[in-house]
UniProtKB/TrEMBL annotation:
Protein name: NISCH protein
Domain of life: Eukaryota
Main location: cytoplasm
GO BP: Golgi organization; lysosome localization; regulation of protein localization
Domain PLEKHM2 PH: 114-178
InterPro entries reported in the protein's UniProt record: PH_domain-containing_M2, PH_NISCH_C, PH_PLEKHM2
Assigned keywords, A-Z: Cytoplasm
Compartment(s) where it occurs, according to its Swiss-Prot or TrEMBL record: Cytoplasm
GO annotations of cellular component type: endosome membrane
Domain Nischarin C-terminal PH: 241-347
Species, as recorded: Aegithalos caudatus (Long-tailed tit)
Amino acid sequence: YPSEFLMQKITEDNQIPVHLHVSVSLQYVAGLKGRALVEFFHSNIAEVENEELRHLMWSSVLFYKTPNVEVMACVLLSTKAIYFLLDDSFIHADEHQSDFWNKENSDCENSSFHLSCCFVLKLNDLQSVNVGLFDQYFRITGHSADHIVTCLTRDSYNTHTFIQQLMAVLSLLARTPSPEPVDKDFYSEFGSKNTGKMENYELIHSSRVKFIYPNEEEIGDLAFLVAEKMDGLTNLPSLNILLYVLAFQVNHFEGSAQNTSSLQPKTLILTSSDLFLFDEDYISYPLPEFAKEPPKRDKYQLADGRRIRDLDRVLMGYQTYPQALTFVFDDVQNQDLMQNLTLDHFGE
């Protein structure tokens, strides 16, 4: 151990996405190759001597306790745990975060020693994995609020690969088998359907970890929500969601020494008539079992919406992935003025 193929694969995966900035400590990790990377894992991260590194992935992550702070992380999957090697800027991002972050070493800031914060989720503590729409992200849930993490891969291939590797590693765990299910009689089987809502697709792994996938109703709910935002200007049956993608909105700051830009995470939804940007809560839904109250904000909050017929042109950057697109709309004020006046004058 480890095989040459595994080392080559981990080396290839050890690349920070070009559009995201990370701290010096994570840049150091991204510079490691092959055996040096495996040795770094065993000497600095691994908690048990005989655990094996199986997969590496770079992804933005969100924690349940700090739902507004998206941070870059190197995600390492071993035969014992999932390790999130975090950008050290996260430690100072939120003064009110929970106590499980270790702040004792903050005096290293001014030295040449670069500190990274590592969050560990033991595979034995893992309870469920929720896969987001179109495999754009997934949420890992443990036994408490401190153990809920969402990985925003923004890439169905990375999500799929990680889930496959996680299932393979979980198969190695020796867990006590679940008790045999009790045969249900006819009345209990068909009499307890008190909810009209279809449950999400669940796959219960042999390790008793649930893998939960969205069903068709989630797209239906999303289409209904989008139609609501359009003020009923369209009939719902003809509304089709053509594209759902997690993207970034680029905000330019001019006038500074050099024109800088910040990336705001957004969910882009394209229908046959409109283009929408939503602020989506990727971490709070579906509600964890221990949640006492619903989240403070809705799952989808409309940030911007424009009609396709007002789209003037689309500018495409020529850089490699990720592609930058600029949508230029005709700036028409009060575009639905006549329709609103008619409603006000002639009826409810």
